[in-house]
Amino acid sequence: MRTAVLHDKTVCPYVPDYYACRIVKWRWVIYPWAVAEDLEGFISTMKPRPASSDAIARRLAAEHGIRIARSVLLDVLSMMDLPGH
Q1: Tell me: the pLDDT tens digits for 35-73?
Q2: Which of 13, 28, 47, 53 has the most Cβ atoms closer than 10 angstroms to its Cβ?
């Protein structure tokens, strides 16, 4: 049996047989099919929760290096059903 991954993070103790890209410096990889789930996780742990979508976007950029399209962020906030967003 062989294993394959999209991204081989060198910080991981398991080494796959095949990979599309090797990531040497650790970083959070957000796949297109997991954008909403990952952003919701980051936003839900923000304490105190920022009062506006712009403030959330600034925190995502500052704390996680994530720059996200405003429309995507607004969609995620809408799914989270946060008051005031």
Answers
A1: 999 999 999 999 998 999 999 999 999 999 899 999 999
A2: 53
